[in-house]
Amino acid sequence: MQMSKRLGIITVCVLAVALAGCGKKGDQKQTSQSPPPAQAAKTQAAAGEAAPGGSSVPDYAKMAEQNRQALTQMNQGKVVEAVSGATLKELLPAELPGMKRTSASGERNQMMGVDVSNAEGRYEATDGKGASVHIRITDVGSMTGPVRMGMASWAMMQYSRETDTGYEKTTTFNGYKAVEEYRTQAKSGTIRVWVADRFIVEIDGDQVTMDALKEVGGKLDFKKLAAAGS
Predict the structure, then answer these.
(1) What is the C-alpha to C-alpha distance for residues 208 and 212, in angstroms, rounded to an integer?
(2) 20 Cβ contact partners less than 8 Å away, ≥ 6 residues apart
(3) At what angle do helices 60-74 and 3-28 cross, to 10 degrees?
(4) In angstroms, what CA-CA distances link 126 with 48, 91, 96, 132?
(5) Side-chain-side CA neighbours of residue 120 (13 Å)
(6) Using CA atoms in the order 187, 89, 151, 7, what is the torsion angle rounded to 10 degrees?
(7) What's the predicted TM-score (pTM) here?
(8) pLDDT over 90, % of the chain
(9) For residue 66, which of 31, 21, 127 has the smallest C-alpha distance?
(10) Domains and CATH numbers, the chain
């Protein structure tokens, strides 16, 4: 599954948890007696819910604030903001051994109280043999705490798995928790590195060896990346 899709899934889960928590608090305040219809309609309208015969107008600002508060609580009361996409983009190598960079981008997204950013660079071999590398740096930003329960859970475990077509294992890379995946027949692989408890560096390659991917990782300044989030 692509990293961007994983981010989307976790974002939805975080929003669901936050809203569910708010819903439970509201349930605890309810009494056994139902309020008069007029009062119920007024309350529903104020909460952005659909009143009988009316239309639904969600209070997105309120929902975003609820999510921000939930994420801050998950981060032990610390407000975490994602670094800019431009800052991450500057960490992408201008070129790689035997490869030229064909594209580079950086962006920061703030939606419904969730703040994340990423940068991507694509590289192609200059010899025309079809080798390519894709580097993606993601700052999970305000999702620093919750992300450990999902996308970066591999950073908290050790495992190794080998098959007839390749392998997958946790390891360390330049002193940081990482996971390697390689598919022998396809000559493609991935290295994911968890940096400073908030950055995920993903290096994907096609028609390359794992040693070549590790060489690419050696061109990235992980210490500078970690400092960007301090």
Answers:
(1) 6
(2) none
(3) 100
(4) 56, 22, 10, 10
(5) 11
(6) -110
(7) 0.70
(8) 48
(9) 21
(10) 9-74 (no CATH), 80-228 (3.40.1000)
Q: How far apart are CA 187 and CA 84, in angstroms?
A: 34
CA nearest 217: which of 104, 134, 139? 134
Q: Report, as an integer, the average pLDDT of 92-121.
A: 90
The structure tokens listed for 75 are: 């981060």
Statement: residue 94 has pLDDT above 90: yes
Token pair of 143, please? 């999702």
Residues 215-228 as b or e (16 or more Cβ within 10 Å = b): ebbeebebeebeeb
Specify the residue for token string 């999902």: 150
- 101 burial (CB, 10 Å; 0-12 / 13-18 / 19+) is middle
- Provide the token pair at 92: 């992408």
Contact call for residues 222 and 195 (beta carbons, < 8 A): yes
